[in-house]
Amino acid sequence: MEEIVFLAKNVTKQYCKKNMGDKFNALDKFNMTIRRGDIYGFVGKNGTRYIQQL
């Protein structure tokens, strides 16, 4: 069995819109498993990369 170095289960992140009181989900029931040796890349809303080494 490969070693799990990162595990996220059912992660939800909410934000409130400014001056509106409305909430929206940036993440809704997000699941992710990263095993040793896996490589992932994340792209932000403006196309920038987020780099993190596990």
Explain what you see.
- The protein has a two-stranded antiparallel ribbon. Strands 3-4 form a two-stranded antiparallel ribbon.
- The protein has no helices and 4 strands.
- It is an all-beta fold and 54 residues long.
- 0% of the residues are buried.
- Helix content is 0%, strand content 56%.
- It has one domain (4-50).
- The protein is elongated, with a radius of gyration of 15 Å.
- It has strands spanning 4-16, 23-35, 42-43, 49-50.
Low-confidence stretches: none
- How big a fraction of the residues is strand? over 45%
Q: Tell me the number of structural domains.
A: 1
Rg from alpha-carbon coordinates: 15 Å
Distance between the termini: 18 Å
User: Number of DSSP strands?
Assistant: 4
Q: Portion of residues in helices?
A: under 10%
Helices, by number, come to: 0
Structural class based on helices, strands and sheet pairing: mainly beta
Shape: elongated
Mean pLDDT: 81
- Please state how the strands of the largest beta sheet are arranged side by side: 1-2
* Major sheet size, sense and barrel closure: 2 strands, antiparallel
Order of helices and strands: EEEE
